[in-house]
Amino acid sequence: MDKVLVVTGGSRGIGATVARHAAAQDWVVVLSYLAGTEAEVAGVVAGIAASGGRAFAVQADSTREDDVAHLFAEAARHGRVAGLVNNAGIDGGPV
Questions:
Q1: Where does 3-86 sit in CATH, by number?
Q2: Which residues, other chains included, contact 15 with Cβ-Cβ below 8 Å and sequence gap of 6+?
Q3: For residue 7, what are the β-bridge partners?
């Protein structure tokens, strides 16, 4: 059974880099992203596929419980979820 890594905030920056590295180590990578970053996450997924890896993108807001449940349900469809990189965060603005 494939080992699956969930990477929140995987459309760019550290999340995208972690996803690429994990895919190169034979992980199936499931990336979460927010609306508005579809093109970025599609590029990450395509790059991983072009390198022979497997990656999937799921739109999910990590602050919403239903979205997180959906993210992990989708990830489990691709194998055993064996890792999580909780990289999602707020970019700019007061916290």
A1: 3.40.50.720
A2: 7, 8, 9, 31, 85, 87, 88
A3: 31, 85
Where do the domains of the chain lie?
A: 3-86
Residue by residue, DSSP assigns 16-81 as HHHHHHHHHTT-EEEEEE-TT-HHHHHHHHHHHHHTT-EEEEEE--TT-HHHHHHHHHHHHTTSEE
- Say which residue the tokens 């080992």 belong to: 3
Rounded average pLDDT per 10-residue block, the chain, 95 residues: 93 94 98 89 97 97 96 97 90 54
User: Within 13 Å and on the Cβ side, how many CA atoms surround 74?
Assistant: 18
Token pair listed for 59: 């739109």
